[in-house]
Specification:
Layout: E1 8-12, E2 21-25, E3 28-34, E4 40-44, E5 58-60, E6 63-65, E7 72-73, E8 79-81, E9 98-104, E10 107-111, E11 131-140, H1 144-151, H2 157-160, E12 177-180, E13 185-194, E14 205-215, E15 218-225, E16 236-246, E17 249-258, H3 265-285, H4 305-317
Length: about 325
């Protein structure tokens, strides 16, 4: 399954501190924990001794300790201590399966199958002129591809986000450009008239969007409102990062990168929360829950060029989790 070779977000970095944390990725239970150096690790959440959940244990002297019999495992996954037999030196086969871990964009990312695959790109993360704020997680009863496709879709603004990102009086979409990239697909010259395009909007504005898919379950957007309709110099980039828990259930984070150093985190998060919780019930209502990749399975219009390109990208990439 190609999805196992990809990097997936599984938790906020700040949520994994003192003790182990259980998470689920691609139908597999994992445990996250930090060693004595503060480095994040990911193991199968199952002790190889008697099958107890390691996430119920604790970190002891830089090792992960099983809650059942106190077996301890180093960051490599190797068992280094069996308390019932202190003189015993565990052989190499006394180990728990470990996975690749990286931290970026305020998140812990896990790769279930080793492969030379880079983390999804979010260039705004390295822009010191933009402030970064994390939003989420949101647990959503929808497949990751359905959530990505919704993020890429502007033609629902006037209905799902009426009075915020769109209006029923201005639903026509201008033609926009779609192209393939080295990492996925990209849409440029996307325009929408929005009553309240962001936290600092003072009047309706035409907003220019760029959308980009940089991994099967990762998408980015940048948005710039027309001059004079919001705070001077306002620009915004948003990363959508999804953990595919099961084929029909996902955990979602947003990463904001904004030219706003005055508003509180809570104010920025509240605006994003309002928008996504308008999307969530519609996403959870969609059937089938997996995203259909057969172009004949659902109807399309010219406004759906980006979502059609995303579906072709998933099919060409060999993605099978969350699609049908």
């Amino acid at each position: 399954m190609m999805e196992k070779t990809q990097w997936h977000p599984v938790a906020l970095s700040s949520d994994v501190q003192q003790g182990p944390v259980g998470v689920r990725l691609l139908d597999e239970d994992l445990v996250l924990w930090r060693d004595a150096a503060g480095v994040a690790n990911a193991f199968v959440d199952r002790c190889p001794h008697r099958g107890a959940r390691l996430s119920l244990g604790r970190v002891n002297e830089g090792n992960l300790e099983c809650p059942y019999h106190g077996w301890q495992f180093a960051d490599s996954g190797q068992c280094v201590k069996v308390p019932a037999v202190p003189s015993f030196t565990p052989p190499p086969q006394h180990c728990v399966k470990s996975f690749g871990v990286q931290e970026a964009c305020g998140l812990i990312w896990v790769q279930l199958q080793a492969a030379d695959v880079p983390l999804p790109v979010f260039e705004a993360e390295d822009d010191a002129r933009l402030r970064k704020v994390s939003c989420g997680p949101y647990d959503v009863a929808a497949s990751a591809p359905r959530i990505i496709e919704n993020f890429l879709d502007m033609s629902h603004f006037g209905f799902v986000h009426e009075g915020w990102l769109g209006s029923r009086d201005a639903t026509e979409m201008s033609p926009y450009n779609v192209e393939n990239t080295a990492f996925g697909v990209k849409a440029t010259n996307c325009k929408a008239v929005q009553p309240l395009s962001n936290l600092h909007s003072t009047k309706p504005a035409q907003v220019h969007y760029t959308y980009e898919v940089t991994g099967p379950y990762t998408a980015l957007l940048t948005k710039i409102p027309e001059e004079g309709t919001t705070k001077d110099g306002w620009r915004e980039a948003i990363g959508l990062f999804i953990c595919p828990i099961t084929p029909e259930c996902s955990r979602v984070w947003f990463r904001l990168a904004v030219a706003d150093f005055e508003s509180s985190d809570e104010q920025l998060q509240a605006f994003q929360h309002t928008i996504f919780t308008q999307d969530q019930p519609v996403l959870e209502s969609q059937l089938p829950k997996p995203l259909p990749l057969d172009p004949r399975a659902e109807l399309h219009s010219s406004a759906d060029r980006m979502s059609a390109a995303y579906r072709r990208y998933l099919k060409a990439s060999g993605v099978t989790f969350g699609v049908c």
